[in-house]
Amino acid sequence: MNPSDREQRVLDRIERVRRRRAEVKENRITLAHGAGGKATQTLIDAIFLEAFRNPLLEPLGDAAELAVGGSRLALTTDSFVVTPLFFPGGDIGDLAVNGTVNDLAVAGARPLYLTAGFILEEGLPVAELTRIVGSMRAAADAAGVCVVTGDTKVVHRGKGDGCYINTAGVGVIEYQGQLGLSGVRPGDAVIVSGPIGEHGVTVMLARGDLDIEADLVSDTAPVHGLVAELLACTTGVRAMRDATRGGVATILNEVARTADVAVVVDEDAIPVRPEVRGAAELLGIDPLYVACEGRFVAIVDGAEADRALTAMRRHPLGAQSAVIGRVKADPPGLVLLNTAFGGTRICDLLVGDPLPRIC
Predict the structure, then answer these.
(1) pLDDT tens across 210-219, in order?
(2) What are the structural domains, with CATH classification, of the chain?
(3) Which residues have a Cβ under 8 Å from the Cβ of 116 and sit 6 or more positions away?
(4) Which of 89, 287, 347, 351 sits 20 to 30 Å CA-CA off 36?
């Protein structure tokens, strides 16, 4: 079905905006620049990518792929600034390990080594730091990685949120295929590895600012075992992304923009726990934009979708994996959501800072 003249004008206007050179118009950094939406994307494209542009950086993946001595390595870095430091299902310590491991995993790598840099606020109880470090050690042991070097800095009271953690991770890529958003093509299936939004909603409720009670815990977990199951069953995996800041919606927009394709998602197919959906409705937010810390999105050859889904569901972390949509040729660069009410709407990147920082 061809779009009407009015629809085509809208699509043409969106395309002109999308192709416009990125430019940070604000004079100062705002919280929106760290929310994972349009402001973050503009900041990365206009400032960081412009300054550091090189072939290894330009894919803007969760990890860079490096060729070293005949081996393929993945290298990633991340920073964790969650408030509160402790929340149901986890804390900033295991979040830092799992988040770094997952960035390596979706690059097709077997995680090996991590670094850990701590920025501590004057006045942080030593007992809390001990608890955080213990959680990191337990998470590292569970994921089969080692923390091999690190750094510690202390800032004045009131200049931090108790503890920030910066990590880097190195893994070896044993998967023989090539992963990347540029390989996505029409006909591919979009798979999410489990229910979305649990981490973000859990952290928001843990702050105690909202009079909402829900039986929720964070989904923080290492996904490298699940990824290995997926990659072992099929060569049809095009790309994977870790659904953290900005949630699944941000990943889908990255797919559409980078591969110059349309991503069409069925709202009814997206796994969301009733507790998350209910809390999100009360908060006026869409679970598609809420961070996960133990979920990823995989783009898979459509002919291999059933095989991939079966393999993922065999793993405990992937038991509720679901095909949520398909890749199409038109309209390129857009994510379309087929709603539960029978309509279709554009699912764009976040604008502004509607969510508190949660990772």
Answers:
(1) 777 788 999 9
(2) 63-173 (3.30.1330.10), 181-346 (3.90.650.10)
(3) 96, 136, 147, 149, 150, 165, 166, 167
(4) 89
